[in-house]
């Protein structure tokens, strides 16, 4: 039977249409006002919404509700309460009040707070976010919420994200007013994240402690074949994978997540999924849900879905491209180069705002994507370099050049542009060429921030991006606000020229993977924050703290707490990796290797007895080689063990993070390098876990 997809889409979501049908008209209007204009929600409205939500949820089989939030773990959290309310004579009714909808009080003592919330004051609050729709999953009504402390500090990723959306809207509206756009009351940031992932057989997964505990393989020699044939990229989908993707699409559609694109990626067993873009807040919620559902549906199909940035050494890791743009409440995309001159002036101003933002706050953008997992990708010639730069494409680049030099510019189609005189060509959407090595590329009518790791919540990078661009716009507004109307065009062009001249160092159109670029970037004075500990101080750097406070994104306390959480998260991740590797070596790899050495030795002795020396000679060489590897691996593991003990005693600060990066990571690499030379020499069946070959080529 054919499924009715439009009917299926959003069938588990408390949509606007259901709200309109179920709520009294005045209540619906009041709620809409809150959602569209960010106004305060009255309790009687909340009560009416709660009744409607509960009715709909119960009709659709829900028995519980939960305040769904995004603590600093990077995952989502939920605590379920049932709707039941005991009444007389041992009976119950299904009940849900406005107060329960609006505010929750989970016991929050175990969520990371970076010292904000002392354990004696463990209370945390969740507050309903009416801008992201509620939905039903597994018999529970999910209510998207923000999570904060008793004293109002944000303990989550949603609160600062909503604040950053407010900030950029506020500043953009002010600038648009100067340009004569009086009817714009609201500017939204839009995001479409492309999500990469690996699928391997669940039985293989269950045999690898490293995948279970750390998400990536800590040992493993390459298979005879890797990704060098490029035969997986966009290749046809294997039946089992196609069935998974089909099921996944449907599950996500039910939740109103508009997934659209799916294909095989470069590495074997690697795939990608992308939704149609949405406003940032909803895109963030949807991406968190997508990652969760991807894993669940995988289990149903006998797969494990790996979201780690680098599950396998030697083949591409997984990233997430954050496509980002700005659009007015009238539906105009502010990063669309546009057809008419007036729009182009506006486009150039917003383009300049992004250029300035990326140059001034490249350190924050870098920080926003830094993690132990992503350290394996950035700068490793498979993902953008750790140096943040921007790619504009040939056409825009010529425009920028011409503006800077006050020249007339003509492009290939012989469209002339007079810079001061606002005649710019319309850029067809697909004329921006592709530069896969650029971390931040203009792609037609949006920017694509490509440095994100696959498991990352996209909240962080968008908070940074929104705030940095809000800051540029706010500085632009200050410069333009006293300009008379008839001089505005000229003033805007002067400002665009000034901005481009000052910030063009951030623009780079060449190959980001080369050493020349690293050297050139250093000459230009760009940040090259190679690893997570190098990037972390950006969060509490003076200039950045000032900006966050100015736009009311984070308080100083919130920043300090987030800085501490980041450090802790980083060191804990590497600590778990170190312990897991030690465990695998001691309990699995070393004993397996010794078993093989013993079997070989027995076999040599047996041959000696029979007077056969030919094979015994080569076997003896092999035993010597393996025995040396055994010794080296065990010694390297002892060193890792000692260093981990040292690390454990260190205070939780940036030096500890550096120690993990410099010492522990390199200890782990030393072990792996030696162990991986032995793996191809060990016959199948000795190691208790599957090899790369078995995991990656038999799905
Ligand atoms: P790619 O060629 O980079 O693989 P895809 O088509 O897979 O591109 O993904 C592009 C993403 O960009 C999609 O999620 C799409 O919805 C999103 N996108 C398109 N326009 C905008 C916009 N104005 N704002 C934000 N995201 C957008
Ligand atoms: Mg992309």
Give a structural overview.
- The protein has 22 helices and 19 strands.
- The longest helix is centred in the last third of the chain and has 55 residues, at 556-610.
- Residues 408-431 have low confidence and may be disordered.
- The protein has 699 residues and is α+β, with helices and mostly antiparallel strands.
- Strand 10 (259-264) and strand 11 form a beta hairpin.
- Helix 9 crosses helix 10, helix 19 (556-610) packs antiparallel against helix 20 and helix 19 (556-610) packs parallel to helix 21 (654-678).
- Strands 9, 10, 11, 12, 13, 14, 15, 18 and 19 form a 9-stranded mixed sheet that branches. Strands 1, 2, 5, 6, 7 and 8 form a 6-stranded mixed sheet that branches.
- It folds into 4 domains: 5-156, Roll (Ubiquitin-like (UB roll)), CATH 3.10.20; 163-192 and 320-411 and 437-548, no CATH class; 195-218 and 227-317, Creatine Kinase, Chain A, domain 2; 569-696, Up-down Bundle (Four Helix Bundle (Hemerythrin (Met), subunit A)), CATH 1.20.120.
